[in-house]
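Page header: ASSEMBLY MODEL / two components / 999 residues total.
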Amino acid sequence: MLLRKAARDLRAMGTRALLIVVVIGAGTGTGAGISLALHDVEQTRDSFYAHYRLADLDVRLLRPLAPQPLLQRARRIDARPAETRLVLSGAALMGAAQPAAEVVGMSSTAALNRLAVIDGRGLSPGAPRGALLDPDFAARFGLHTGDRLRLALQGRQIELRIRGLARNPEYLLATANPDYLVPEPGSLAVVFLPRAALQRLTGLGNRVNDLVADLPGGQAARRSEQLTAGLPVARVTPRAQQYSLRLTNADIHAFSIFAPVMGGIFALVGLLLIVLSLRRLVNSQRRELGALLALGYRPRTVVATVLLPAALLALAGGIVAIAVTIGVGRLVAEEYSATVGFPNTSYPLAAGPLALAAGLAIGATLLAAIVPAYRLARLRPTQAMHGERIVSFGLPGWLQRATSAGPPATVYAIRTLLRRPLLSAATVLSIATAIGLGAALNILVSSTNSSVDAEFSQQGWTYSVDLARPLPASQAAALARRAGAARAEPTIKGPARLSSATGHATDIELAGLPARPPLLQLELTAGSPPTTDRVVISEQTARTLAVGVGGKLGVRTPATHAELSVAGIARTLATQSTYLPQRQASRLLGAPGRATSVLIAAEPPAARRLRAEPAIARVTSKASAQKAERELINELTGLISVLQAISLGVGAIFLISTLALSFLDRRGEFATLAALGYGRRQIGATVAGEALTQTALAAALSIPLGILIAVPLSNSIAEAWFEIGLHPELPSFIWVIVPALVLALLAVAHATRRALRIDIAATVRARLID
Amino acid sequence: MTESLVSLESVSKSYGGGAGQQLVLDDLSLQMEAGEFVVVLGPSGCGKTTLLNLIGGLDTADSGRVRACGVDLTGAGRAELTAYRARSVGFVFQFYNLLPTLTAQENVEAGVRVAGVDRESARRSASSLLARVGLGSMSGRFPSQLSGGEQQRVAIARALAKEPQLLLADEPTGNLDEETAGGVLELMQELNQATGATFVVVSHNPVLAQEGKRVVRLSHGGLAELQRS
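Prediction written out in full:
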């Protein structure tokens, strides 16, 4: 009988039941969906790098050599597979622009660092001028499969035909200036050609300058040293240090910190609304439960009477929660993958987030029903049937006076918000949190942009010039001056590993700095500039190594090892850069007195002249790096927009369901207003007044909430990327509050339509259930 | 010949459809004059409330013609019916239907302001009416702070505050004890005399028949009996 009653109760509840199910599903599913998205992007990353076989080690040589001796070295240390490539730096000739290019001559059947062809066809030895191009570069310069592409390479001009577009695990996030952790999508023309074809086109014969290999497990460092011993090595990049992998890991790490914060906020708000909705549902049955008690039913049975429909709602809510989890998870993961550039997104259905969604939905709903049901069952039957507690409404005198201004419909609307202060507060808080989360994401974007602008604005250099091979510092500076640079600051950069006394270690890029750098300004947040044996590290490195100013560090380069201490800590976008005086840095990197790059202050013609020099690998302008960083951040806003849309969507669901439930509870009152002669416009204005008041309060509350939410999110960005100073600005809020108000108006229109469709005659006779 | 304040001509009304259709009013004709106190009696389901709803413009007839206060309710649109309810009719319901978040004073004002009366006049009118129904000292209380009888008095004050031509009361004493019900009926009769408004009171309480000046008895959808006391 109870089951029949439960089913009939649900049928009678109709829309209200549906709304409660939506609240349960949306509240718990959104939070779990973000957790599922994190799982999906991690899977996507792992399967991408596994499927396209990112090599364990990449050895770049200073000059091309014959391939066979290199492969024999690899075989001697059991590095299998191992492949040789010819990788050359040059420039793409795109009219006035001459962006940096990296041309990779590789086997068309490569087993390592394989190509993911996303348009056109793969490499073919039969098509020696048929190149595959990085899709970001193609998009940036409007190139398509079948177009021609001209390159300046090894002092020659080469014309190629674009055979297709392809991503590669090594160049997933390509950048012309890898000093900065933030990549510049499309800034580097990554071109893939058959190796033999590139050798012929550049006249280098059967020579290569790059070896990629997978190492057998264990003793990777020793095997790497064995492999490179005696070779003219320009760079050794272990898999973990590979730029794209490092960046995607950092990015996903940031997301892994974002995800629980955002998921938690959604889940918390959802749970709050579940509790309130169920409490309202149980209390609306107060009289009939009282009647059951009066008929002699035991309290246990009365609780069961409530729990059965609640269980059915919980079950339906659980199913919706799973659907919402999958939907939100896919939406976020898809957007995230597109932002990073993964060619495919993996959607393995992780049991954890799905079980979490269903478990939370069912558990929270049952718990939310049990508590008020148990309280009701403990009442005397007369108390329960009478229901005074439910209909009682009173206000302190001052509040009564304060809310008595305006037409009766307005007074009624305002007082309705005070009728269930907890529900009103929860609704306002839910909407404020949804708006605040959206605003927090906007604050992050604008603050990150401000930090990037601030960092670049204090730099005196206008171009960063990377040399094709290390040159004596004086020669590098002279080269730049000859091209027309007003000022030139030669520096050296090279890989190194820092370790602290606390046992922490991290890979860094050691950079040389003149005693008084005219062009590169460090923003020191602690300590002083670098001096001999005293290094300046980034805030991120300091955090990773758990050291402060004065802390002891060991540095290991391919050439040597040294003991250092921390002179200062810098806030920088180049988070891996570690600064020492130029002279000591060049010595530690095994190239005393030499430079690998030059920072210059110059006009564009000087940069063009430098690009034409064979000794120059690439020239990156500060403006383009700054623009690219902004573009990257704007790309990330695609993901942020999805999250904002979800926030607002969930907020709208909460608002609509709260309004609808509130309306359903008060339809007798609306009917009374209609019977008194209040017209559609006045009743509509009453409903609108309630909703807009709540939204306005939520909008006001969203400002402090948005700032509060932005703080932990910015900390997670600092941990993964670089330190940003929070700059909350009004537009960050306006861009979220305005859509929220529009959604509120839509919710109002929906609720008003329902209010006006009421059957006055039937409703007005029903006893008002408050 | 002057027009009756309320006139129903061959009015029929049914609910539901198909086999479950229930004819509630069947070819009913009835007139009510200005200033009358009409009691509508009859067993449950005979159409008393339906009759009241049709006169009050809360529902429309399937066939026939309903006119009240000079308005043809049969062909009236939604806006016209709203204006009619706002200006010409006051309602009193069995469960009072006071707005729980408005005080007694504000509930009464809500019934006046809708007729386009300015705030100050509405306040004066509400205060005066509440005093008249014996609740002058309770005007600041919310409905939940009033007894059932007091709430019904507020509802009567609200219905009369706009000085309607017609007051329709649906089982106004159905939720009250005998003594309180007697007081409410007495008040309604007093107000009927004092205001000159036509009172139509639906009830199945036979005691009311003795108090009413005119009794309309409905049975099975039709007029069973007209009685004047």
